[in-house]
């Protein structure tokens, strides 16, 4: 008898959520959505139709707003801090000056573009002018139309602030009201789980589904253990960080369980409770039963959607079937029995039959995947931290160099490898031969048609030469003795090259007038070449102009030096002896 009653009860269709009377009759595969550029957004930002179509349509423009005058400047609208963090420590006057015309938002943040739009708000990527870090700021689309709407909007911010920080809960930073709108500042994530999943290749993805399940169970455990129920868990309300960690967000419907104890409060709160998204809504919510089991159901539907790439029905037969414990086998048959079992438990029609979050976390299959997930996240986050540390060091180095421009002049750091090799095979004569004409300068420009030659590099070499040429006579004019101290090259007039040349002993200079140029001893290029075992004598004999292009370029000049009038290797040698001894002094 009881079985017969139960069967007849289970056949009675559940009432449909009030928002969705248009029923979809069956389960279907997810339709792929592609991002498009929104005409109303900045160049860099885009929002996908999914973001818009998966939410309720935006409210019509508020009719209760005070009219804005185009003729007279508006006084700065009052800024009201809503979060305790902001009330306790408002930004200093240097960052936010209330007497200024600009809003609190524009004074305290640099807007980096629109991240997305929901049904009630727009989310911007911002850089805080206070600490220089990047955040997300959600601003309600419309001004409040009355106290009821205002209170509901405020509740989201207040609820969010009340939650203790947790690695899988979106971190709250601040909230304020300005110009009749609510602003909530949170940590910045990469995107929402919904958009992330839609950008993945189509088809079931069970490993990802396990990862999502583990992260969201941790988030729910945190909420439930603190006496809260989310009541609006769905992929659109979950955010994903760069490392792939899921963060539960959007606490507009957060419900505090302990309020149930007071009868008067219970009635008040229940009247105030809004319906969440009907696609993910647990059946008992329609009967006014609010509890942690509702979140378990919503999580079950979300994981089913993500694992099977299934369009979740928002009404109709499919909606009813899901709430009667029926899993569409045409979608779930690709999943392992482990995941099917877990989903079946989570989607039990009666809340009392569903396992609690703690019971789910204790399941061997969940524990196994949770371990894997922890290790994955640890590795991913460590790698990301290391990468950002490296970037920081490079940035710091670059800034440091910009403070000491003379350092940058001395270090010939970034010409392309090819141009380095070519430069190093230049005859030393070309560097401090008596030259002052543009033709002679052209010798240093190596090969202007060479695409490997960096323009900055050739420019630098040219400029070095022009500096040198001012102290050297023109070709053809009587040449002074190179031994004369007046013409001994110094560190300064050798410029970049001095650091290379002076690292050498005269033995580096070959009798044919060519020279082996080395970078300073600490140079990694030097180390690389040493490791390669490049021998100046052997390479010198091996290389020929014909094979040069195919062989690895050597640091030793192998070609005949460019014919230059009045070039005397002997003078060059002595010049180096002089320079080296000067350096020792
Ligand atoms: N902290 C964040 N970091 C990065 N992107 C975010 C963040 N918060 C929101 N977004 C992006 O902005 C979009 C809209 O945000 P959100 O869904 O919170 O607005 P909403 O008005 O509450 O929408 P709904 O009420 O329909 O859930 C999200 O889909 C997501 O892509």
Automatic annotation (TrEMBL):
Reactions performed catalytically: L-threonyl-[protein] + ATP = O-phospho-L-threonyl-[protein] + ADP + H(+); L-seryl-[protein] + ATP = O-phospho-L-seryl-[protein] + ADP + H(+)
Subcellular location field: Golgi apparatus membrane
Keyword ATP-binding tagged: yes
Gene3D superfamilies: Phosphorylase Kinase, domain 1 (3.30.200.20), Transferase(Phosphotransferase) domain 1 (1.10.510.10)
Subcellular location, principal: Golgi
InterPro entries: CC_SR_Kinase, Kinase-like_dom_sf, Prot_kinase_dom, Protein_kinase_ATP_BS, Ser/Thr_kinase_AS
Positions of the UniProt region annotated as Disordered: 455-489, 535-585
Entries under SUPFAM superfamilies matching the protein: Protein kinase-like (PK-like) (SSF56112)
GO molecular-function terms, A-Z: ATP binding; metal ion binding; protein serine/threonine kinase activity
Membrane topology reported for the UniProt record: Peripheral membrane protein
PROSITE patterns on file: PROTEIN_KINASE_ATP, PROTEIN_KINASE_DOM, PROTEIN_KINASE_ST
Polar residues composition-biased segments: 535-549
A GO BP entry: meiotic cell cycle
Binding site for ATP: 138
PANTHER family: EUKARYOTIC TRANSLATION INITIATION FACTOR 2-ALPHA KINASE EIF2-ALPHA KINASE -RELATED, MEMBRANE-ASSOCIATED TYROSINE- AND THREONINE-SPECIFIC CDC2-INHIBITORY KINASE
The name this protein goes by in its record: non-specific serine/threonine protein kinase
Lineage: Eukaryota, Metazoa, Chordata, Craniata, Vertebrata
């Amino acid at each position: 008898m009881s079985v017969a009653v139960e069967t007849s009860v289970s056949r009675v269709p559940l009432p449909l959520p009030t928002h969705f009377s248009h029923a979809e009759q069956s389960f279907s595969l997810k339709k792929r959505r592609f991002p498009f550029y929104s005409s109303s957004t900045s160049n860099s930002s885009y929002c996908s139709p999914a973001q818009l179509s998966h939410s309720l349509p935006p409210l019509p423009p508020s009719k209760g707003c005070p009219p804005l005058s185009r003729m007279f400047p508006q006084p700065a609208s009052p800024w009201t801090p809503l979060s305790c963090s902001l009330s306790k420590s408002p930004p200093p006057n240097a960052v936010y000056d209330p007497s200024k015309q600009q809003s609190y938002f524009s004074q305290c943040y640099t807007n980096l573009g629109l991240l997305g739009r929901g049904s009630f708000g727009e989310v911007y990527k911002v850089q805080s002018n206070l600490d220089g870090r990047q955040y997300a700021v959600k601003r309600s689309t419309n001004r409040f139309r009355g106290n009821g709407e205002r209170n509901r909007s405020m509740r989201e911010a207040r609820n969010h602030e009340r939650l203790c920080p947790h690695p899988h809960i979106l971190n709250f930073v601040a909230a304020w009201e300005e110009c009749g709108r609510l602003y909530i500042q949170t940590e910045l994530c990469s995107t929402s789980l919904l958009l992330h999943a839609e950008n993945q290749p189509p088809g079931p993805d069970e490993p990802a589904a396990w990862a999502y399940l583990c992260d969201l169970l941790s988030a729910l455990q945190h909420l439930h253990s603190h006496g809260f129920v989310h009541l609006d868990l769905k992929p659109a309300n979950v955010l994903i960080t760069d490392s792939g960690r899921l963060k539960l967000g959007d606490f507009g419907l957060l419900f505090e369980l302990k309020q149930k104890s007071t009868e008067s409060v219970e009635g008040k709160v229940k009247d105030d409770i809004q319906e969440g998204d009907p696609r993910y809504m647990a059946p008992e919510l329609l009967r006014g039963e609010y509890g942690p089991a509702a979140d378990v159901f919503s999580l079950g539907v979300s994981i089913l959607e993500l694992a099977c790439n299934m369009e979740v029905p928002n009404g109709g037969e499919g909606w009813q079937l899901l709430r009667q414990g029926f899993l569409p086998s045409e979608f779930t048959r690709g999943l392992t029995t482990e995941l099917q079992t877990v989903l079946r438990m989570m989607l039990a029609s009666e809340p009392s039959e569903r396992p609690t979050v703690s019971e789910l976390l204790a399941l061997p299959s969940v524990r196994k995947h949770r371990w894997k997930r922890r290790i994955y996240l640890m590795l991913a986050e460590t790698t990301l931290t290391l990468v950002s540390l490296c970037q920081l060091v490079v940035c710091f180095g670059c800034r440091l160099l910009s403070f000491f421009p003379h350092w940058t002049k001395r270090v010939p750091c970034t010409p392309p490898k090819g141009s380095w090799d070519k430069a190093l095979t230049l005859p030393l004569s070309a560097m401090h031969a008596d030259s002052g004409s543009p033709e002679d300068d052209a010798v240093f420009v190596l090969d202007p048609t060479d695409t490997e030659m960096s323009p900055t590099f050739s420019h630098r070499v040219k400029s070095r030469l022009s500096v040198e040429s001012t102290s050297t006579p023109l070709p053809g004019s009587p040449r002074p003795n190179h031994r004369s101290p007046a013409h001994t090259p110094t560190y300064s007039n050798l410029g970049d090259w001095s650091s290379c040349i002076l690292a050498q002993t005269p033995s580096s200079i070959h009798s044919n007038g060519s020279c082996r140029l080395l970078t300073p001893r600490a140079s990694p290029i030097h180390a690389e070449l040493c490791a390669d075992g490049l021998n100046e004598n052997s390479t010198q004999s091996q290389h020929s102009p014909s094979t040069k292009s195919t062989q690895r370029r050597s640091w030793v000049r192998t070609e005949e030096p460019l014919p230059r009038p009045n070039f005397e290797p002997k003078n060059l040698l002595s010049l180096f002896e002089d320079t080296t001894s000067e350096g020792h002094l």
